[in-house]
């Protein structure tokens, strides 16, 4: 997906409604409300301890020192030291619990997004860049870390401190308190403006980070490097990446500087307030106003400083929350993605699968809501008996792979139905379907792990003997055994340490290990040379024995022995029958065979 193209899914109009979104964010913390209650108690205790210190200071300056009461002075000093110790202990415990809760919430979010994406249909991934998906999980959730782990606690802590401090200030002198709080509403208004500004910039920044992640994923993969080097586009790709990075630099600077001068003014005014309080108290005394003791003034300024720190932090937290709303919105977009392929509420579970596959008046459209686009498949009626073989042939774009992918529910039919042993595949539970249907495609995917780990992906509890047996059946055991590290050999990114034929045989061994009763072979040999194809075909023959096999064929020489051959044209069955029968008809299949024969010598 190009960065200028729209996202594959657009959230509903009310998705940016902040109150609804805030409620949804708070819901994330609901499972941990017990721990958060403990944090709240620690916050309250810490605030009370902090507020007590100025009162101890007032008594020290107004009573203990002027009256020479050394015993009282020692107790007050000890009280101030004890307050500092308790505040420190409460702060450490508060940080530990709140960070743990925050990280659990992060874990829940990551797992929820990953689980949601695992349930999406193949169509979603064909229209979404891999880097975009990775960016949502890594950058967006990672960007929320500070907010989730500390903001909630900081909000409660600072709010409690502000309330407790204001109450204490009023208790000391309500007139000085009014003077101190005159500008607070203006500061709140400024912080809200800054927060809205940063939230908009953050949305743009995260989109740009997703674009960069997609560029890196595509261009720095093994395939991307090969393409860039062989096409002489390495410098062009570097310049393109530099342009993307330059745009990100601009957004990062704008994000960090948004409202920075306004917040700096707030900080300057708050720092200057003690001087204003001293001046106000002094002028009031000179003009015959109420007498305020030195201890009261010092204690009040101490409280005021104690007020301004959490007040500034509270305003900054408000800005941070506004910024984080943009990140949460991007995560919620993925969590709200409509899942096309779901399991029934009470699905059918089959302990034993014979393997009969039926396509009954099957229709399929990639966009079921777009009636103007013609169907990819239309009116397909085909039956494959258990243990039988079906070959699907036809020109490019005829719908061959799509038809095969309907059986394991990589797509769902938009009309008609596909059955396995007489049960609609949409009614089967996912476990039954996964055990019953194996797929070997032309594009073999191997993880950057050892050969053994790649094979055991199909059967995690497989023994070494089972691995060796599967590899022998796939004609690849001798080659693996000849490697210096044998089955512990790392296959490399996407299996690039192995040739195309070797990767295909590893994929076949992996499928043999899983032992599915139904097998989908999607042009598994079309990209191979004739000699390699012969070795892979022997492995496929071993794999197909006693299984229901659907072969999407590019080279027709591989499917002549199929029980039934179906020729697709424009999504409909044009011809069907056995190899010899279709040759006798001298129709589309015979033409494809002649074309294949002409091309064979060039392979």
Automatic annotation (TrEMBL):
The keyword Cell inner membrane applies. GO terms for biological process: oligopeptide export from mitochondrion. Residues 37-323 form the ABC transmembrane type-1 domain. Residues 357-595 form the ABC transporter domain. Its main location: membrane. Keywords: ATP-binding, Cell inner membrane, Cell membrane, Membrane, Nucleotide-binding, Transmembrane, Transmembrane helix, Transport. It is a multi-pass membrane protein. The keyword Transport applies. The chain crosses the membrane at residues 36-57, 72-97, 152-172, 178-195, 263-281. GO terms for cellular component: plasma membrane. It is found in: Cell inner membrane. Pfam families: ABC_membrane, ABC_tran. One of its GO terms (molecular function) is ABC-type oligopeptide transporter activity. Gene3D superfamilies: ABC transporter type 1, transmembrane domain, P-loop containing nucleotide triphosphate hydrolases. Belongs to the ABC transporter superfamily. Siderophore-Fe(3+) uptake transporter (SIUT) (TC 3.A.1.21) family. This is Multidrug ABC transporter ATP-binding protein. It comes from Streptomyces aurantiogriseus.
């Amino acid at each position: 997906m190009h960065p200028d193209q729209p996202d594959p899914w657009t959230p509903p109009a009310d998705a940016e409604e902040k109150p609804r979104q805030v409620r949804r964010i708070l819901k994330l913390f609901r499972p941990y409300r017990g721990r958060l209650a403990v944090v709240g108690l620690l916050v309250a205790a810490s605030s009370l301890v902090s507020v007590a210190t100025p009162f101890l200071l007032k008594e020290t300056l107004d009573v203990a020192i002027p009256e020479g009461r050394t015993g009282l002075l020692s107790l007050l000093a000890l009280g101030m030291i004890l307050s500092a110790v308790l505040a420190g202990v409460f702060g450490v415990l508060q940080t530990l619990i709140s960070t743990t809760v925050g990280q659990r919430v992060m874990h829940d979010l990551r797992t929820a997004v990953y689980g949601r994406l695992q349930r999406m249909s193949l169509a979603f991934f064909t229209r979404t860049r891999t880097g975009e998906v990775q960016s949502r999980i890594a950058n967006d959730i990672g960007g929320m870390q500070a907010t989730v782990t500390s903001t909630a606690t900081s909000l409660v802590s600072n709010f409690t401190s502000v309330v407790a401090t204001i109450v204490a200030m009023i208790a000391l002198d309500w007139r000085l308190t009014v003077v101190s709080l005159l500008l607070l509403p203006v500061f709140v208004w400024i912080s809200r403006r800054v927060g809205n500004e940063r939230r908009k910039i953050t949305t743009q920044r995260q989109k740009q980070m997703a674009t960069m992640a997609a560029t890196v994923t595509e261009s720095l993969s093994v395939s991307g490097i090969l393409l860039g080097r062989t096409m002489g586009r390495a410098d062009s790709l570097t310049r393109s990446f530099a342009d993307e990075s330059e745009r990100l630099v601009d957004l990062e600077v704008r994000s960090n500087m948004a409202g920075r001068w306004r917040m700096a003014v707030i900080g300057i005014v708050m720092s200057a307030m003690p001087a204003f309080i001293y001046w106000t108290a002094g002028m009031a005394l000179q003009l015959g106003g109420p007498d305020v003791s030195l201890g009261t003034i010092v204690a009040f300024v101490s409280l005021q400083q104690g007020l301004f720190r959490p007040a500034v932090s509270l305003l900054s937290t408000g800005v941070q929350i506004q910024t984080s709303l943009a990140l949460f919105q991007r995560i919620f977009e993925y969590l709200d993605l409509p899942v096309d392929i779901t399991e029934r509420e009470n699905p059918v579970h089959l302990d034993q699968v014979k393997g009969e596959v039926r396509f009954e008046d099957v229709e399929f459209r990639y966009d079921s809501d777009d009636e103007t686009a013609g169907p990819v498949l239309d009116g397909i009626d085909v039956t494959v008996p258990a243990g039988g073989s079906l070959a699907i042939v036809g020109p490019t774009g005829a719908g061959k792979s799509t038809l095969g992918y309907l059986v394991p529910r990589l797509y769902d039919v938009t009309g008609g139905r596909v059955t396995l042993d007489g049960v609609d595949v949409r009614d089967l539970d996912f476990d039954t379907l996964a055990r019953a249907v194996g797929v070997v495609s032309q594009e073999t995917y191997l993880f950057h792990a050892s050969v053994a780990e790649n094979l055991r992906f199909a059967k995690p509890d497989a023994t070494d003997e089972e691995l060796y047996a599967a590899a022998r059946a796939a004609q690849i055991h001798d080659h693996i055994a000849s490697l210096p590290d044998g089955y512990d050999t790392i296959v490399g990114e996407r299996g690039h340490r192995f040739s195309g034929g070797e990767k295909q045989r590893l994929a076949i061994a992996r499928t043999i290990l899983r032992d599915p009763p139904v097998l989908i072979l999607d042009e598994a040999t079309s990209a191979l040379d004739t000699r390699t194809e012969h070795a892979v075909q022997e492995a496929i023959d071993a794999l197909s024995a006693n299984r229901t096999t659907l072969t999407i064929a590019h080279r027709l020489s591989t499917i002549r022995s199929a029980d039934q051959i179906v020729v697709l044209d424009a999504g409909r069955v044009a011809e069907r029958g056995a190899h010899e029968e279709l040759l006798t008809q001298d129709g589309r299949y015979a033409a494809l065979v002649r074309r294949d024969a002409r091309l064979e010598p060039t392979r």
